[in-house]
Structures are given as C-alpha cells and as structure tokens.
C-alpha cells in the first residue's frame, strides 16, 4: 500500500535549469514592460527601443521597487518608478537623476535571453551559470514559414512540478485510459543525447469518419522546449513550452501550426479543431497531474513506458539538491476535474474500453 503524510513537500525536485519561454514575441512591443513570476522569482520583461528583449530580476537595488509595475523604457534603459534610477540591459545602473555618480556595485541581475521561433526565452540557472546549450532554430515556427498556417496558441497554468507533466511523453498507456484512444500508442524508440531527447511512436486517431493511422514524433531540448509532429490526419507541428512558475507550479504554452492545404477556411477549421482536441486532452490530464503523488520507486508493469530512462535524462537539469527524505511525495491540496469541459474526439468517436462497461 502506497501512503504519504500530508504536509510533506510536493515533490523532491527543485526548479530545473534550462531555456524557458517567458512570452510570445508578438505580445511584447517596443517600450513594453511586463512583470513576471517564474522560477520562484519576481522578474521584469521589457523591450528596448532597439527592439531587443530583456529579462531581469524585478527589484530595484535602491529601495526595492518592482521595475515591472510602473517602470518605463527610455531608449535602451528601464527607469525605476520609485526614484528614477536607470538600468541598462545588462542590469548596470547608468543614471541616478539626483546624483552626480552612479552605483557601480549593485546590478539588477540579467538573464540570458534569446528571441527565436516567435517566442522570447530566458535562461535560468539557480547559481546563474551561463547557458550550457543553445535554442534551435525551428523552421516551422519562424515568422516567414509560409508553408504553415498562422500560429494557434493555448496556455494552461498547472499546479504540478515540471517533471510530473513531462513524464506524460513516455507514458503510452495513459492515452487509452485517460483519453480513450483506440489503442495504446506503439513506442518505436525513446533515446537521449545530452540535453536532447527523442520519441517516435505510431498512433491511431479517431475521427467522425473512422480511425486514421498516424504518428506522434517528439523532440525535446532540455525541460523547457519540445516539438511534436502529428501526422496522419493533417501535418501539424506543436511547440510545447513548459515554464516553471515555481518548483510545484508551471505554465504550459502550446503553439500549433498546420501544413497549408490550399483552402484557408479548411485550414482554419482543421487547425482550431486539432488545437482544441489536444487542449481538451490537457484538461483531462490536469486532475491526474495535480492530484498524483510522486513515487520514487513506481510499481511498473513490464509493458510500461521508459519512465526510468526519462527520469535519468531529467535528473541532469537539477543543479540544487534533490530531496531524498521520502519515497512518496503527495500533493498539498485537492484539484477537482472540470466537469463542463468539452469531450475529446477520442471520447466521442473512440471505442470504449471494456473495463469501463457496467
């Protein structure tokens, strides 16, 4: 019997390090300033007059004002709303309007930032170590990808650690029992190479016209960026970006792009339907993720997915100690399912599992 005391920590894992999405590029105009809460820290995101995006710690070292609430951009500097101190993109104090000197000692900590694939990504490491790998250029998500439809975005805030969510990628069996797919996806391979991981699988998709043979193939770069290629119904790419708000809470951002079919109305309908289907599956997963315990030694069946291989890969992204005091880490609260969510296509058109029959 698996038990765990209430009040213990939610998971043994700290916030992982890596590249994480903090905003869509189109959502941050020149001169914009936005407050953020990511990585268990208060941050500020701003775009200077040269068009460059910056992510920094939020609090002014002078008197602690939050630069994301009332701060303004002037040229390539952010101006504190409290006393007008100015800081450049490297966090250095460039001007104190009522002083003839600047403060060279105090710095508003900057985070390495790249703008690529139509998103803004910041590098997080708990000791502020520099990036150890790069963000790839993804042709399907570039601004000039004329073979693909306009992006469709979905966003979900999930009360669960990054690793519990990411483990879904190697859990083929849950598709049958949570999402009612007609078969458990056939996992052809799961491989890792440094910060990279690769998953290749065969899947059947239920539709109003019957079951369609297809594939789900996934590539990941660290904990914050995955690209999933769905094929069979229509070629669709999903860029999935999981950003920790804290060690036990994440924001999951999805961007879908569908291969153009030559008919804008059909493309729009297919793209939205596919995004809705995947989004509804996330809503089916959420009560599992949010209410499950983390088991250090799960009782795996012989045909379960490569959970332990995934966990070994994931372990490299923790620079802080992983808690080892317990074998079971239960959730700290209760998160009921949303009963009014729309049924997925699998629930509408798939074959019910015999185990569920009365």
Overview of this protein structure:
The protein has helices spanning 162-166, 174-177, 264-291, 307-315, 345-349, and strands spanning 18-24, 33-38, 41-47, 53-57, 72-74, 77-79, 86-88, 93-95, 110-111, 113-116, 119-124, 152-158, 186-193, 196-207, 210-221, 225-231, 236-246, 249-258, 294-295, 328-329. By secondary structure, the protein is an alpha+beta fold. The protein folds into two domains: 19-124, Rieske Iron-sulfur Protein (3-layer Sandwich), CATH 2.102.10; 144-353, Naphthalene 1,2-dioxygenase Alpha Subunit, Chain A, domain 1 (Alpha-Beta Complex). The strands form five sheets. The protein has a seven-stranded antiparallel β-sheet. The protein starts with 17 loop residues before the first strand and ends in a 9-residue tail after the last helix.
Layout of strands and helices, then pairs:
Blueprint: E1 18-24, E2 33-38, E3 41-47, E4 53-57, E5 72-74, E6 77-79, E7 86-88, E8 93-95, E9 110-111, E10 113-116, E11 119-124, E12 152-158, H1 162-166, H2 174-177, E13 186-193, E14 196-207, E15 210-221, E16 225-231, E17 236-246, E18 249-258, H3 264-291, E19 294-295, H4 307-315, E20 328-329, H5 345-349
Protein name: cholesterol 7-desaturase
GO molecular function, one term: 2 iron, 2 sulfur cluster binding
Subunit structure: Homotrimer. The two-component system 3-ketosteroid-9-alpha-monooxygenase is composed of an oxygenase component KshA and a reductase component KshB.
């Amino acid at each position: 019997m698996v038990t765990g005391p209430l009040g213990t920590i939610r998971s043994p894992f700290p916030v992982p390090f890596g590249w994480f999405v903090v905003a869509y590029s189109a959502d941050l105009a020149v001169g914009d300033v936005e407050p953020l809460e990511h990585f268990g820290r208060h941050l500020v995101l701003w775009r200077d007059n040269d068009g460059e995006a910056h992510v920094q710690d939020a609090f002014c070292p002078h008197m602690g004002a939050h630069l994301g609430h009332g701060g303004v951009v002037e040229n390539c500097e952010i101006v504190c709303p409290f006393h007008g101190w100015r800081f450049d993109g490297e966090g250095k104090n460039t001007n104190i309007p009522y002083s003839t000197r600047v403060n060279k000692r105090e710095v508003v900590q900057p985070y390495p930032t790249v703008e690529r694939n139509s998103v803004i990504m910041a590098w997080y490491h708990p000791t502020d170590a520099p990036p150890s790998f790069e963000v790839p250029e993804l042709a399907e998500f570039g601004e000039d990808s004329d073979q693909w439809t306009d992006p469709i975005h979905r966003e979900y805030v999930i009360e669960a650690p990054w690793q519990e969510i990411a483990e879904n990628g190697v859990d083929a069996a849950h598709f049958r029992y949570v999402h009612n797919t007609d078969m458990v996806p056939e996992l052809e391979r799961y491989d890792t190479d440094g910060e990279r991981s690769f998953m290749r699988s065969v899947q059947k998709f239920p539709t109003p016209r019957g079951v369609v043979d297809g594939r789900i193939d996934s590539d990941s770069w660290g904990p914050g960026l995955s690209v999933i290629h769905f094929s069979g119904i229509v070629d669709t790419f999903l860029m999935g970006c999981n950003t920790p708000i804290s060690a036990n809470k994440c924001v999951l951002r999805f961007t879908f792009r569908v291969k153009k079919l030559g008919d804008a109305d059909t493309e729009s309908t297919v793209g939205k339907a596919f995004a809705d289907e995947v989004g509804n599956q996330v809503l089916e997963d959420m009560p599992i993720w949010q209410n499950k315990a983390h088991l250090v030694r799960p009782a795996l069946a012989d045909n379960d997915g490569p959970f332990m291989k995934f966990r070994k890969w994931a372990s490299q992204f923790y620079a802080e100690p992983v808690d080892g005091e317990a074998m079971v880490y239960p959730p700290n609260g209760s998160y009921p399912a949303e009963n009014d969510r729309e049924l997925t296509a699998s629930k509408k058109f798939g074959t019910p599992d015999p185990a569920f029959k009365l």
